[in-house]
Amino acid sequence: MNTPAPAPAPKYTPREIETQWQTKWFEKNVFLAEPGGDRPKYYVLEMLPYPSGQLHMGHVRNYTLGDVLARYKRARGFNVMHPMGWDAFGLPAENAAMKRKTHPKAWTLNNIAEMKKVMQQFGWSYDWSKEVTSCLPSYYGPQQALFLDMYEKGLVYRGEALVNWDPVDQTVLANEQVVDGKGWRSGAPVERRKLPQWFMKITQYADQLLADLDTLPGWPARVKTMQENWLGKSRGLEFSFKVTGGYEAPLTVFTTRPDTIYGATFCAVAPEHPLAQAAAARNPAAAAFIAAASALGTAQEIIDKAEKQGFLTPFKAVHPLTGGELPIYIANFVLMTYGTGALMAVPAHDERDYEFAKKYSLPIVEVVAGGTDVQEAPYAEAGVAINSPLIDGLATDAAKDTIIAAAEAQGWGRGVTNWRLRDWGISRQRYWGCPIPFIHCPSCGVVPVPREALPVQLPEDVEFTGSGNPLANHPTWKHTRCPSCGGQAERETDTMDTFMDSSWYYLRYLCPTAADPLDKAKVGYWMAGKGVDQYIGGVEHAVLHLLYARFFTKALRDCGYPVGNEPFGALLTQGMVVGNSYQKADGTYLYPSQVEIKDGKAFEKATGDAVTILPVEKISKSKNNGDSPDALLARYGADTLRLFILFTAPPERDLEWSEAAIEGAWRFLNRVWSLGQRVKDLPSITGPMPNYSKEQSRVWRKIHQTIDKVTRDLENFQYNTMVAAIMELFNDLTSLDIEDPVSARVVRRGYITLLQLLNPACPHITEEIWEQLGFRVPISNMYWLQVNSTTRKIVEEMDERFGELVFYDENEAKEEEITLVVQVNGKVRAKLVVPHDIGQAEAIAQAQAAPEVATWLPNGVAKAVYVPGRLVNLVAQA
RNA sequence: GCCGGCGUGGCGGAACUGGUAGACGCGGCGGACUCAAAAUCCGCAGCCUUCACGGGCGUGUGGGUUCGAUUCCCUCCGCCGGCACCA
Questions:
Q1: What sign results for the dihedral spanned by CA atoms A477, A469, A300, A501?
Q2: A388-402, A424-438, A682-696, A772-786, range with the lowest pLDDT
Q3: What are A559-616's pLDDT values in tens digits?
Q4: What distance in Å separates the CA atoms of residue A861 and residue A825, rounded to the nearest whole number?
Q5: Domain boundaries in chain A?
Q6: Nucleotides of B under 7 A from a protein CB
Q7: Using the CB atom, is residue A667 less than 7 Å from strand B?
Q8: Which residue is nearest to nucleotide B12 (CA to C1')?
């Protein structure tokens, strides 16, 4: 008879384990979050995705970062809100409708279903019962109600704005739809056109938006700087020139450098300025110039980079101080939206004015002494005023004040505060967006839709021709009755900017089915304190989305909602996921997994053909640079991908795609699994610890040190070093001989600790092995290992086996000996092993006595610097 | 163009508050196991120089502050994000 071979230890099969645990979490509502209870609240929010249909690695990164935090905070005893939803309105759905004849709604909802399926396989701890979808009336209806709230508060108004107009398709183009100055579909040159639009009065909050940045210590400084620059508060002089030559109105300009007023040698106005229009009315050449300028479109970048051009008008501006007459130009770089749409130009002290003056041979008059020859290059820094009778000899700041004071005293100008920020134009001439709930009545004017008639729903039977606004083209939708007089009237056919949708979603998550837009009790509970306790998303949203959301919160606060002053108490901006792309000779792209790299050159695995390696760039579907998350999930499982994401780069930095690095994460988890299978069979002993060998105490110390290190890394979002620390602990555990009973105890307890530390990053594998070790309370219900005596007692009473857990103890983590570095003149020459509490005198004495240093100190020591616990630096006598 | 950021071995990255540069991982090399390979395990390794001990150099470039600089300041170079209708 053969004796049966012992059953081989089960293999690590992530797919099975992960589905099983995801099902358990879901069935037990583990991540359901409701107000109340003893636990303090903690709101973890990640930027919601646009449902393109493809979950990409950028999403995976964003949501994994958030999930680690959410799971850690749960373990630390918080009532954690961690929701997810869909930013579901927007241009791509309409583009897809034109291209593939699908309806935006069907396309979008289908994409959401596909993405959600993949997302649920990552084991992210979302409370899916809070899910919101911005393109459904259950979301955009409440949004319309909030819009009316803000309207009643005076924060919504009608105005005019410039748009990119495609004259062939008779439609407004987004900046990204303008390619080389032409409409992307029609190829027709775009025109800048003025259109009536809806606006939000964000400028009314400019001061608060600026001042409250100081209340956000949890935000990256660079994001706050960007917002500050975007708001662009500046103090300056607004004054008017009398105009000669047949233009009646004065020309009002704004300048931040009133001290250079004597150096003004010409004026420039925006092409849309009334003075430019007056010039155009008299001269077809001026009209042609304005038309050409308007072909630049509305994008700031294009306007800034375009060649500076001007057109001389027949009007002259009379200088208020000198009485001199300055020529007035129409200039293609002057913006109608900043200041007054007109400026005084001082070529000696402004880069752009200088360039323009050189081009049109205009005089350059130096009025600030700076040492450089202003005929050769402009001097834009501060200095001392010259050639300026009122302020000669004054420094720039004093000169500015003096001019402003003089202008106010003499009545020709006034000091004003100007902002770069302009009001938020929210009108979009598109179908796939939230309808603006207003009605245009020929006799009553613009009338809000009554609240009981909300939501104003989008019609579904629309055509996408690429011409005009599908909503306006709809045969019947817009025709309605005026709510005020009952007469024939038309609905507003503009829809809202999708930034509106993403400006309040974090509030609707808290009460996704409330009849009122916001359930005040629930919103009050979750938004108390810091609001969203931690927000995580891409830096690309540093200005617009975050500024709009901040504005919304303040506006809603003023409408009586308990949302606080700031929505996001802390912000983490994650880097992008980037990768090389690989292009074959025929121009098609290969996935990284299809490519083999040898000696820095790439070859297609299947054919052996040489492949071109293109530079690192944002992962995108068209370039195939980076396999899709679902393919990788199938191969490695969620825990491996999560570990790869966390380990490969710090959260704030760009993460470079690497198949090899995923393999590394996979191997580590397999090693963790295998060790688990051996630890399972070790006896569980909870009694007092015997005396350790040197090696055993080192590892025991390491267990405590790792708890501390991982905890600090979690608090600081240093997830990459957190993983490294866990790997180090693992390496130390495997360095002990498990056959030795004392070592086995250290390994077993260390391994249990490692599972708990790894759990936020890799929840499935740790949960599974935890159960295999015989613990009855799931690891996701455990308290963190850095606990106070109360929680420790609670934990130990949960399961008699928890006597085996290791709780962090500072004393156990302490090293008895340290390595003291001895430097001579800053160079390391010796290392000494000394007691950790060595004193300064003793340390210096031992350093000087070290045999290695003597040759570097032929003339003795001039000075000794001691850094406690670290080093002694001996400075050699010359 | 304007605003903001990043730059460390062959590669991703680590380094507390100005104090041992290169932790951890990938790749590489050597070894064990195997008929062989894969997987796995053990070991080596910044570069130059040296038989070795050792020494020199080294954090994009050039300069500065300091006993000591990847870290602070200035210059330049390269790359990336945003610029108001992509989200």
A1: positive
A2: A682-696
A3: 999 999 999 999 999 988 876 666 666 666 666 656 655 545 566 666 666 666 665 5
A4: 10
A5: 37-154+205-229+423-576, 156-200, 234-418, 679-814, 817-876
A6: 1-6, 11-16, 19-21, 23-27, 39-42, 55-56, 67-69, 79-87
A7: yes
A8: A648
